[in-house]
Amino acid sequence: MSRLDTSGDDYRARRAAMLAKLAELDAEHARAVAGGGPKYVERHRARGGLLARERIELLVDPDSAFLELSPLAGWGTEFPVGASVVTGIGVVEGVECVIVANDPTVRGGSTNPWTLRKTLRAADIALANRLPLINLVESGGADLPTQKEIFIPGGRVFRNLTRLSAAGIPTVALVFGSSTAGGAYVPGLSDHVVMVRERAKVFLGGPPLVKMATGEEAEEEALGGAEMHARVSGLADHLADDEHDALRIGRRIVRNLNHRRAGPAPGPVREPRHDADELLGIVPEDLRIPFDPREVIVRIVDGGEFDEFKPLYGTSLVTGWARLHGHPVGILANARGVLFSEESQKAAQFIQLANQARTPLVFLQNTTGYMVGTDYERGGIVKHGSMMINAVANSTVPHLTVVMGASYGAGNYGMCGRAYDPRFLFTWPSAKSAVMGPAQLAGVLSIVGRAAARARGQDYDEAGDAAMREMVERQIEAESLPFFLSGRLYDDGVIDPRDTRTVLGLCLSAVGNAPVPEPAGFGVFRM
């Protein structure tokens, strides 16, 4: 039952603040969609090429959803937003697939450090959820000025392709343009390869390198053209007449994979009782003000029905059972930010129950961390917080995390932050995440500095202290914001709160491609 007053001043202020943040998010997404900008987009079109997102749109089933992942990768760095690659989950011939599409309008689709991290994340998702991986290839290879950051870890791209194939997860490469040097191993290590006539070029060394290495004068088409690979080397399984033909062949390949979902089928789906639009006015702009996560839960779960577990115990953490797009889920949601001993023990028990029932868990984060202070330390907060972290770390059911508000300190870990490998993690524009709040962190540094000065018998520089605190607060505030964190792939994307149910539903559907995992084996709980 909802108690949200959608006519009140607080609600209207929260809604206005969220809409302002969403406008900023739309602007950043537009930067990613723009790719390399009009000049390079037009140049690519003049060569007869489709854009990365156009290729994806033609590949996936008509009117099906495409869940784009990490669209803000590289935000706040020297590289363009989006990191010159589009990744996501789409449905091809009724099969959910992970799709990785190089954007050739951004520095020729070359791989920079954020491209690499985004590509590796996509492969991890494919492996964990047993989703076929389709690479839409057109890349100039490594961004050479940053080779020191991508050469050695970049080998994981090729290792991942072999691991996926060895696990029986199909890999497909549709080559539209260049796939040179190390990039040649993407089609080389894929199960199925399609190359576009007169456009695809696949070779370990292009003509300039061949000339330098051997003295041979080589012509591109003869060295690594699609026709040669289809007729001579055998690297190409299919020779496509043009890009549209390549995408048709790609769809036909997926149709013939005989891929089956290994997880349980969802039950009937019921819409929530309350309008998702109301989610815009729930989270306060000042995250120190608590909000009731039940108001979020009833707007995202089927029928708005939530069977709460231990509602009278550890009330700063809400736990319970629901269905989401027909999938049974257990939900853990922070109610008042701080996690005490009772909440920690409650969470550990609930996670164990979910593992017994093989039920996926959804974490809705708004936490300032575990409680500190003499009484709480004496009461065993370290033991009990460790118990919760132990349970999260060793739980084997799928975890999905949404950061709605604060995500500070070890609370980020206990509520299944990125370090604990949730299958998917998304962030609302209202979220903030750091080791602690900006004012608290600056204050701690000030206290430590004062103590150090006192120990040396020196006077403390109050003016310098004030300047330091202001600088630190600004820095931590900037580094805790969702665009910054998403730019570094600490989530899978910043989403509109109104899309939360849809995004979680798509993720739960993807998770259902993998078999139900083996039961958990927990570490020793300190009692």
From TrEMBL:
Residues 18-269 form the CoA carboxyltransferase N-terminal domain. InterPro entries: AcCoA_carboxyl_beta, ClpP/crotonase-like_dom_sf, COA_CT_C, COA_CT_N, MCCB/AccD1-like. Residues 268-518 form the CoA carboxyltransferase C-terminal domain. PANTHER family: ACETYL, PROPIONYL, PYRUVATE, AND GLUTACONYL CARBOXYLASE-RELATED, METHYLCROTONOYL-COA CARBOXYLASE. This is Acetyl-CoA carboxylase carboxyltransferase subunit. It comes from Streptosporangium pseudovulgare.
